[in-house]
Amino acid sequence: MRHRKRSTSLGKDTAHLKAMLRNMAKSFIMHERVSTTVDRAKELRRVVEPLITLAKEDSVQSRRRAVKLLAVRYNALTPKETRAAKGGDLSAYNDDRKLIKKLFEEIGPKFKARPGGYTRIVKTGSRIGDAASTCIFESVE
């Protein structure tokens, strides 16, 4: 029975699925376009669209919720990385800061007037190896 199952597992356990969707969401935010299978894109939409809705209002609470949803390392560094950061090497969490900055300063304002439907799935055919249907997951504007 499939009672109370909101989404498909995509053949992965819960931790792997969450990590995969978070990584794909990060890639989508950085590049605003991801090439993947149709099933993964449909699941990715459930992660990305609420993030864009959060980014429409730039507040501290919205940023904290986005950091939590994406599981980015905004300030949590190991002691070794902290020593390196004090020395000027900010590479340990620089990309995560860029990610949140881009989400709230570029992507969010772009969709300010739009009530929803920020992404589209463009089907591109099927993969050669296993014939999985592939698509391009991209932002609308």
Structural overview:
It is a single chain. This protein has helices spanning 14-31, 38-55, 60-70, 79-86, 94-110, and strands at residues 33-37, 119-126, 133-139. It is an alpha+beta fold and 141 residues long. The chain has one domain: Ribosomal protein L17 (50s Ribosomal Protein L17, Chain: A, Alpha-Beta Complex). A hairpin with a 6-residue loop joins strand 2 and strand 3 (133-139). Helix 1 packs across helix 2, helix 2 (38-55) packs antiparallel against helix 3 (60-70) and helix 2 (38-55) packs across helix 5 (94-110). The protein is globular. The model has no long low-confidence stretch (mean pLDDT 89).
Gross geometry: globular
**Strand percent estimate:** 5-15%
- Count of discrete structural domains: 1
Order of helices and strands: HEHHHHEE
Low-pLDDT windows of residues: none
Radius of gyration over alpha carbons? Answer: 17 Å
Structural class: alpha+beta
- Highest-level CATH class: Alpha Beta
Q: Considering the protein shown, what is the CATH homologous superfamily?
A: Ribosomal protein L17
Keywords:
141 residues; alpha+beta; 50s Ribosomal Protein L17, Chain: A; 3-stranded antiparallel beta sheet
Describe the secondary-structure layout.
Blueprint lengths: L13 H18 L1 E5 H18 L4 H11 L8 H8 L7 H17 L8 E8 L6 E7 L2
Antiparallel strand pairs: 1-3, 2-3
Summary, kept brief:
The chain is of the alpha+beta class. The protein has 5 helices and 3 strands.
